[in-house]
Amino acid sequence: MRPGSYIKTFEGLLAALFLFLAAARPAAAQEPFRWSLLRVSPADSAALVALHAAGIEVLSVEGDAARVLAGPRESTWLVEQGFSVRVEVEDYGRYLASRRQESAPTRLAGAEGFAVGSMGGFFSPEEIAAFVDSLVRIDTHGIISPRFEFGRSSEDRPLWAVRVSADASGEDPDKPQVLYNSLIHPREGVTAMCLLYYLGWLVGNYGVVDSVTALVDSRELYFIPVLNPDGYERNWQSYTGGHGFGLWRKNARDNDGNGKVESWEGVDLNRNFSLGWGYDDIGSSPAGWQDSYRGPESFSEPETRAFRDFVNAHAFSCAVNFHSYSSVLINPWGYVDARTPDSLLYARLGRELTAENRYVYGTAVGTLGYRVNGELTDWEY
Asked: Around Cβ 263, how many Cβ atoms within 10 Å?
């Protein structure tokens, strides 16, 4: 069996299932939320600090201007702060979706025929679960567990994981445990695709590729593909409702308590962890409408509390948090511009892990140029 060829054996089944799911699910009734691509200036160091402090996502910096992602409230704030603002794309989510739809399907497929999802190439929430369940069905070695729930979201959606080990029927406390997660920021759909491709590659190549077999035999690997199911569901509803990619980043907290989660609401789960929470208003925001809103207190959200309890119930020696903001590999610290006592180890790992993709590695300030606080990586460390 050629490495990777396992995917082709059930790709047709998955494709048929995905078409059924996409056809069976009605377009959700949801107030559309729109994000614009803006060109703002100035973009000097002080301006960039102000943008990041406000939770505005800076996509690129070109000369004296920055290209940023902004909703209506962010756009108003930029003007009030004296930035020069020019709209490049009025509805960036719809624009991205239209570009996806114009692409040939083969352009959306990954290496070795990896399946294509119905959300512009990305998997929908149900397709993610279907893909993992398919891996469980085709697993002839018993190395992947069925999905198991470890908590519920703000809107009572399940938080679930799977375990990959030589014997997935039970945990082995003597083996090192590794944790992978994605979609804590639900607008970063490609992170789940990367995680799931890797998961499928492990299942398909166990007993075929020596390095895969050795890895699985010697460790317990845990995968959480969707750490923010409410936010990802909103983006799926936006897509099926004809509004393009939703670009929702936070969870579904009703910040003002009026019984309706509006487009500005929610908590950035990746600013809600206790280590360095609220250290300053640059690495996270105290304002509920901003994208980096940290919540009223650390672990205020059911998603972060469930994740905390899940981690504390295990003994993970390594964790990898998948994001798609930039081509970087980030290690602690994030809340201060400082290195950890074992920074030389991180540097060695960084060199090895980026040897082929040429990503930049280091701390948050060293890679992104700004601080973050209440962030998952610092808390895990």
From this structure: 18
